[in-house]
From TrEMBL:
<feature type="transmembrane region" description="Helical">
    <location>
        <begin position="20"/>
        <end position="39"/>
    </location>
</feature>
<keyword id="KW-0812">Transmembrane</keyword>
<keyword id="KW-0472">Membrane</keyword>
<keyword id="KW-1133">Transmembrane helix</keyword>
<protein>
    <recommendedName>
        <fullName>Cytochrome C oxidase assembly protein</fullName>
    </recommendedName>
</protein>
């Protein structure tokens, strides 16, 4: 019994194609996350983190 070499090579070619597709999808996802992070950091002055401190921007304005 011998393994058909053409079938084996076809399997490896398909696997490589899927691996390249997964690589491209992962790179696109990482690029998207990086771009969103950069866009959010562009206006850093208005960013307020959840740090258990009073944030003046959310306090109700008292009119006199």
């Amino acid at each position: 019994m011998s393994i058909d070499q053409t079938a084996t090579h076809e399997i490896y070619a398909r696997r490589k194609g899927r691996n390249v597709a997964v690589l491209l999808i992962l790179l696109a996802f990482v690029t998207l996350i990086f771009a969103v992070t950069i866009v959010k950091m562009q206006n850093g002055a208005s960013m307020e983190a959840f740090d258990h401190a009073i944030r003046p921007s959310i306090l109700p304005q008292v009119s006199e």
